[in-house]
Task: inverse folding
């Protein structure tokens, strides 16, 4: 109601329209409910940012046909604005299985991180791993480096470059430990987390499939059980960092200062039958995590590795045949820590509830 009132006064507020569409999805409406955008464009037909925001919302929902229609109407109204031309390149690369090596030639020298990320994905999808590595390489020393490291790992693995092992080191960097919460504390935490999962669907740009993810920074809540959990997590992270190998310049995990530990985000995920996380990485993080609070019984979960955390497999939409590094079995009270640049996802499980907490530790400041 608050968003509707605000948008009635300012229909061209792009962030507001995006959030309204998100709220309608979370409340159990259609996966794509973009009528707010349509109504706003009717009021402000000369607002290109509004149409571009509409396009981006549909792209997040992976509704490529609707996104193409909105973009076509925008280009008809405003011509080849640079932002619309970039959107058209992104749409062409993400929505088609065909590989056109010349698709991004006109923007090859732009150096724009967003366009270059689309170029990297397009090259990998087309089997041009060396080209993808060359594009990603130009960003590894810049502010957008954490967007590109996961793709660099994929490109290096595909070309047999030994730097893939130098970067990911799954046997060294993936660690599982008991968090130190007893059975009653975990039960209390689970009860609290269930009250926070009031949405009917996940956000469209999240990795959650068949479940929900909380918003707002979970570990900054005031409840004593959350604060106890945060203390245990901080102790575990300090131990993880203390046991890392010596500093290595240029490495995204090892090449940073280590004295400062800040949360970049924290949330809970509740998965239901056949739920899973799509493969993803965490560009805002330095160290990422999974802390298991409640799990289905073994006979309900399904045969192993159902419900397990899997590492090293790139996003399936890239169509790459890369074997995972391995899987980690979940256990109630177990915390898994790993580099935020490492691809990870989960395997669907048969039935029941899989309740977890996740967080990112922010890249330390120099």
Result:
């Amino acid at each position: 109601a608050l968003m509707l009132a605000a948008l009635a006064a300012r229909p061209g507020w792009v962030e507001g329209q995006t959030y309204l569409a998100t709220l309608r999805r979370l409340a159990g409406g259609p996966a794509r409910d973009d009528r707010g955008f349509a109504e706003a464009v009717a009021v402000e037909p000369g607002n290109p940012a509004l149409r571009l925001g509409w396009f981006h919302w549909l792209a997040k929902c992976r509704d490529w046909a609707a996104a193409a229609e909105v973009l076509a109407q925008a280009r008809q109204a405003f011509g080849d604005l640079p932002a619309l031309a970039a959107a058209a390149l992104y749409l062409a690369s993400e929505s088609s299985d065909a590989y056109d090596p010349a698709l991004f030639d006109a923007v090859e020298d732009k150096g724009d991180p967003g366009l270059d990320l689309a170029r990297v994905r397009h090259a990998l999808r087309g089997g041009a791993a060396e080209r993808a590595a060359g594009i990603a390489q130009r960003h590894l020393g810049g502010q957008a480096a954490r967007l590109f490291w996961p793709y660099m790992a994929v490109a290096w693995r595909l070309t047999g470059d030994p730097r893939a092992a130098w970067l990911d080191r799954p046997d060294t960097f993936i660690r599982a430990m008991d968090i130190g919460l007893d059975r009653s504390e975990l039960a209390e935490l689970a009860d609290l987390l269930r009250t926070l999962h009031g949405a009917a669907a996940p956000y469209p740009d999240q990795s959650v499939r068949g479940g929900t993810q909380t918003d707002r920074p979970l570990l900054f809540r005031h409840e004593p059980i959350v604060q106890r959990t945060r203390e245990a997590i901080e102790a575990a992270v300090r131990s993880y960092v203390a046991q890392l190998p010596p500093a290595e310049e240029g490495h995204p995990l090892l090449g940073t200062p280590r004295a400062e530990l800040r949360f970049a985000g924290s949330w809970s995920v509740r998965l239901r039958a056949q739920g899973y996380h799509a493969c993803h990485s965490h560009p805002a993080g330095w160290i990422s995590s999974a802390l298991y609070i409640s799990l289905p019984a073994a006979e309900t979960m399904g045969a192993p590795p159902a419900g397990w955390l899997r590492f090293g497999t790139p996003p399936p939409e890239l169509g790459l045949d890369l074997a995972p590094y391995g899987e980690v079995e979940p256990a109630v009270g177990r915390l898994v820590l790993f580099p935020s640049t490492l691809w990870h996802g989960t395997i669907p499980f048969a039935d029941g509830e899989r309740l977890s907490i996740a967080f990112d530790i922010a890249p330390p400041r120099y």
Q: What stands out?
A: The chain has a mean pLDDT of 96. The domain at 170-361 is CATH 2.60.120.620 (Jelly Rolls). The radius of gyration is 22 Å.
